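Good morning,

Both structures are done.
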Amino acid sequence: MPNLLPPCPSTLSLAIRTGLFGGLLSAVLCTLATPVQAEPARQEQRLYQIPPGNLDQALTQFAASAGLLLSVDARLTAGKPSLGLQGHYSPAQALGKLLAGSGLSAYFSDDGRVLIERAAQASDALELGATRVKGQAEDDALKDYGVPRSVETRDLEQLERFRGRSNADMLAGIAGVQTSDGRNGGGIEVNIRGIQGQGRVPVKVDGSQQSLDVYRGYAGTAQRAYIDPDLISSVTVNKGPSLDAGASGAIGGSVEMQTLTVDDILKPGQTTGWRLRGSLSDNSTADVPSDYRVRPRTERNDLLHPHDWSRSLAFAHKDEAFDVVAAYAERRNNNYFAGKHGYSRYDTSVSSGGALVDANTVARNYWPGEEVLNSSTHNKSFMLKGTLYRDNGLELGLGYRYMDSSFGEIMPSQIGRTGPSMTWPLGDFKKDIDRYDEEFWMRANPEYYQQCSAIDAPVPDGDNRWDSTGCYVRETLDPVYDYTDANQMIQFKPGNMKLHTLTSELKWRPEDDSLARYIDLNGHAWATFGRSIMYNNVGFTAPQRGQGYQDEQSENYRKSLKSDLSNLKVGTDISNTSRFVTGTGDYALTYGASYLYETIDPTRKPWQDDLENNRIERNGYRHEYSLSTALEYKPIPELTFTAGGRYSGYRIHDRNRQALFAAPAGADPDAPWWNAEFAGFADNAELSGHGFAPAYSVSYAFTPNVMAYALYNQGMRMPSLFETTLGSWSAEPNYDLRPERMKTFEVGASFKGSNLLLDNDQAGVKLAYFHNTIDDMVTRNYRYNPKGRPGFNGELKIRNVDSFTTQGVELQSHYDSHWWFADASYVYNIKAETCDRAFAQALREGGKSETPNCTTGGFQGSYTNTQNPPRYSVNLVLGAKAFEQKLATGVRMRYTSGPMYVLDKSWHVGTTTPQQHYLEARIYDFFADYQVSDELKVSFNVYNFTDQYYLDPMSQSMMPAPGRTSSLAASLQF
């Protein structure tokens, strides 16, 4: 068989390359091409200068230049465009570029002929005695650089290389992406370009969504997705709104994950196989403390005495009719230790001119090298999925996933030493850990002191202390747990999340030419059920539980701290693309629809006393639907226009009703004529709304390697259940909320190419400028006693602000020469601003006369104050390959500056949502991967190599990040 490819490395080297960017195609082609000597003329690279135009004309010029006999059915190429070809390529490389995006492949036969035909499925793409080359322009690592919008993808190799310590670490280093409070609670909340929360940036796994809104007390709120990274094969981050059928409400972007595939598990040539993987890590405690009052430890372990571990086993099978994947993964991480260097930078108080501000930093809570309490995770996950391949290009996929995650969690306001408070702005921890609890219980229920769960000596005295849950109790502490011991902190019982997910996927790309132009169908249907048990409730608004309620922490926590919720989400989306070739150009019409139903409710029936005093947990349901369409027009192959839009609507029902009185006055509830239940509650609330958001874009390919684009997209987000229902927090809901409307403007340019510095190297660069404005953004505000009520502290209320704007610049790049490689990105956030004329006027009338209508960050009480990203961030990966590419080693550097703004003005600060004081950080991670054999791969990592003490950007909790952590992992395929 003729060899049409560059010289091939050894078979073992090819096995290594299959795990690298896009190496699978070149590895297989080399392997098949090696046995037969090629004719010199067909083995050499040639210079091609084929201008853009019709594909059939481009193929004719190629055949003449290459001196090959080419056979093609004219009906396959009729009307198809070509970007042309400029440069030196082998015949296989040249055809791969010419056929990119055409749906065609080149078949090189033994007798020297080249047959152009419709691209075969993967199982048919390679045949003995011949070579089939699919149209593929560049390595997979460069595919993001050819897309006219901002997107970034990570493959399995990158995810395993930088797994990190916490689940959120899997997204570290992606340009424009930060994760919020990833050390507390075990979940992942993604911020893209300064936007996050309440469905603005959904996380999807195999098309399904899972998230839970969690109230974080004084620190605000979090929308957590619970994902097991050990079962994830790839991650794609889309920045900004899009017209994808399943992207309704995703105005900030989306994170789309794919679980393990057959190609991740099987070795080349296998149809059935297994993958066994395990890891060991240091820098963790031997166990998680069971007593909630503990002294953080300082005795670090090393990799010779590991306490953290993971293990997974995966099975895969594939053939022409179907493929199947099954996998089980388990990971246990105990509490980690903070870094030791750089602590002194935080060891200062932060003061400002704002009200109620005497800010302390994370260094006041945790000392260098000390155990960080409530930072453990224990995940157990299982997945089973399969794909059925039918005639004429029809594919049907089904899947099931289960996850049982236990995780350390603590309310941010309760992190602190037992001496002076370490949590801004709460003051003395012993006397003022919870201002609301203090006023509520001391004023309304003084006898409650004796009802609190006793945790020490039962005989009260006069020390008048507060316990760790904000409950006022009068008793003497045991000497061993003296609250003057500054070593003592709080360790809560881990929270738990159990998830069941069903997914299905439909793809239909007909092989029949009469249908192929009009049908390119994609659809998903899924359901996710989750049950959570957490200790993050708010005492005076949460159910107080009956005496018979079994609370495992009754000796340590107030009963009302426990929160049990069930959450169900059911969704579906479908889209199709029809293509038309006319004398005026090529058209592609994409149209789709989506539907989402979600419900949340407590796992137990509420008590009547709780209902009458508005002590309830969230209980409601929500419907959302959308219709979308986009028309793409190519008057010439280089120029593309797109126009479209999305129509969205929603309806929300709150099953809770607000009680209009705290207790009946002058009435006997036992009297048969007493009717307070009927007259004493507001009606159940229902909300609905709809709207249309247009989208436009244009792109131009100056050459096959250089592109520029501009887009203006709008997107709408409908109010969430958390924003519109009563329960589990202290903000008054607003039943008049308007949907948010995002307006995104982005311009960018990109370059991608090969054979630049070295033979067969590849490089890509993309630069983008973005400007996002959310009109009617939904957030929370706090006002001190706006209604002038005696004894009334203030008002927390969800409301629309006029607008929220972010603005910035991103640069990302990639280079791979197959001997050394690099990835680099830079982000500069220019602006984050909230405008709200009405609220600013209210603050001015309340005594803050200098309050402007527009402010950096957000106004007091706003969630945006805790979502303030770094002004600058830089991510750099440098690596080299050696020993016939068996070894890949290098270093990653992550730099983040301090926040964009110091939010210290009087209109910024208040009782809630303080800005956490994080500083610039440079974190270095070392990695080394070695392919011992075709079956065995060993990896070694050192995260935070210089053992820095630092706080993650946008942390809600004063929990320093992990110090230096070493990890050893091995993967075995058989």
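Second structure follows.
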Amino acid sequence: MKTFSKKPKTDPNDKQSLSQKEEFKLQEDNVVQTLNFAIAAINITKDIVPINLAKGILGTIANVLNIVQNKSDFLAIAYKCEAITRALARATDGATDDGLRGTLGDALSELNLSVNRIYSEVASKKELKWWQRLFSVTIDRDQISGWEKDLDRILVLFNTEVITGMAIGMKKLALGLNGNANANVNVLKFRPMVPPSRPSMFYGRGMGKSSLAKAILNEPPITEKFGDRRFFVTYDGLDPSSMTFETFMTRLAEALGTVVTGSDSMHQISAFLRSASALVVLDNAETFEEASGSPGLQKIPPAITEIANIPGVILILTSRSRRNAPDVAWLTKDVPPLDLNSAQAVFFRIYGGASRSHAEGEIECLLEALEFHPLSITILANAAQQNSWSPAMLLKRWNDRRSKLLDRGKGKLQSLSFTMQLSLSSPSIQDLGENGLRALTVIASLPQGLNDDLASDLLPSVPQIDNICDVLCTQSLIYRQGCFVKMLAPIRHYVQDSLPPPDPICLRDIRAFYYGAVRRCSLQRDNLADVIISDHLNIEHMVVFDLTRGLCRVLEVFVDSSTWKLKAHCLFSLGSLCGFLTQVTGSMRAFEAAEALYISAGNHEQMAQCVVRRADNYRSQGHFTQSQHVLENLQRSDSWERLTNEIQAGICYFLDRSRMYAFTASADGLFVKSMNNPTWGLLSKISHWRAKLYHGGDIAQVKIHLEDLLQCTSAGNYGGYQNALQGLAEVAYREGRLSESMDILNTIVELVEGKYLQKVFLVNVWKAVIASDQGNYDLARELIHKSSGPIESLTLHDARSFLYRIYHAGQVELAAGQYHRAESYFACTIEGCDMQGDIRFKTFSLRGLGEVALARDNLNLAKQRFAETQSLCAETGVPPRNLYSCALFCALPERFEGWMLFLEGRLPFANDRVM
């Protein structure tokens, strides 16, 4: 899409550059957070695995990630490291250092060598004193890719399941068509007289399929093995609509150097191929795969099948399409884009306008923009060479003209437009009609591509969108990656530049679905939350598009809206999105900006929603005083009287939540103002009695009223019912009736399981605390481990859940007397809190570290930790003596009394050295 600026004098390229920088900054922040949590998870696993060698390996991996933690290039390495962490935890469970013989010992030794080599190479680069922010340029992607492959190879050693498959490198293929190393070409070892051979199909668009096939044909070992029995049959330049079986056979016979006569041409060609081993390439197979003009075409697939089944014949097809003869056990291979080094080599082999050493930086940016697409690289290199463009001039031409620069002549080797038009005119694409082009333009407009699982929800106005995506994928116009269908950059640029813009109805549908998901989604991890997590870049793109360029189109979604109101709607959605992704600072900024716009637009009710969201963000991070101030200021504002009774009641409810945590109001008065409101009444009554519990009220009265309120909740009121049950579980826990508390928590799990996964997670963690209090530490550890998988917790949305899980794990280990583990968990929680700005769990964890220090008789360190805890209590607004009053399951066992001794001034002095 083109970028429009509200300031005519501003260069649109500058605007676009700014947008790209902001997007890059957002992606970089996500990378930092993901890598930091990966490091945290690895450090935790390191403390748990029983094998010293495995501990050392994990420590080295964490060191690698610590060095490179702000670079997106290393995310793939991070994911491999996560996989290793899981594998080591699984493989070493129950093992000992004395038993490291056989497969496990060998695998650990190989892994140790690899990770140490990687660490050595990474560390050596850092020692060159390059700035850390420029570190990614000192290790190229090929080296990183090599590390990935090395780690992949070793991960296989830890697999407990048999992995079958075949991936034969070109050199292995050339040296006898045997072996099974990881590489780029998939074919089967030639075994004479063992039918059938396993033919291969190379897929891709502009990826150099034909060149790859020719390279295979001309490898010296291939020429030695097959001699003059190497055949390259091209079907390029033929019109699929006029293709016939006779044309197919004639081309094949000509390439084989034979003459076929009569009607039984297939028998004659088959006899020729059976006479000796042969390697046959059918190039541009999409020509006959897409053909539809002749009734004899149905003979082609059986003919290919017959050739493929001839003993001693290796058959390779190259095709843009994914159709193939159905009765052949094909080995298929998508020819991937080039790696960086290969792409540069291709470019500079053609372009001589500057030396590679002097122009690599500028050309690298261009190659990345092309996503290392071979045809596009070749076309641009020829254009730069023919026009004597400098690398800087070429980059400028590309930024100005994009896909137009990829049309340098006629024919598919000189023009991306030519090959695209061939594809778009193919019968299968033509059969899709207008809807095929509508889908294509939409996919090109979305930065993540189209979510395949949600395609029909996102594009209800495009009939049979799933089938359309299948056809586009078959034609290699798009490709599947994860749950998305995507488009290579050169193809995307062509679609954006040469086809009509995305259909407004389609954009309206996508916008309505995404905005609706953001608005309706609660903090519980339901299906809508999953949509927001998976598609968050697309959602951000839609919001930014609406804010900067698409306001006129938003009118179709938001009726009777001013420009201010429209922008505010966009910012509100962005704030909600950031909240789901645990980007709390960004969320509050978006809500604050939306709040100002809503005031300007005179929409006081929606403005109040922004204020409530900001206040609740403060509360969720433990900033209770700030949360109160925000809501109290709203109550004192001119807007207050313009709000409905329901909205006022909701604001009073959220204000009292913060007052409850900060003990700035008596429990008798908490939640009273919202009790009589139909929407907030039941929840307020439950919260009132829970506040009584937290503030030291009569437990018997609390229990009676909560049981009465439980009977008042309707069958479908999950929120009210589970809220009352949680209060009763806390009552039982406070009174020491641990088994009863556990039973109530199990009831909550049964109630919300499959509906609110976040709540299930929290309740299972609380159950672990109860199990720990009962002395069953193994069960407690198991419950925490099962509450959320170690890698799932690294996703952005689950970052807060990660804090909860790790803190409670430290809580359990402290109770079990495992002080080293507890210390690691608490320290990890503090690191996570610093990343997220969560001071509440940081306060809990600092207190935990103080108890650990005291248990080790390090009084000075204990006092230091307790003093830091006290300081944070002042920041949160929570009285130090009430640190856990509203978080009963977060409290440490009463036998750890260092904190109370510190507050009472009874912690003895000591001359211990602070560690």
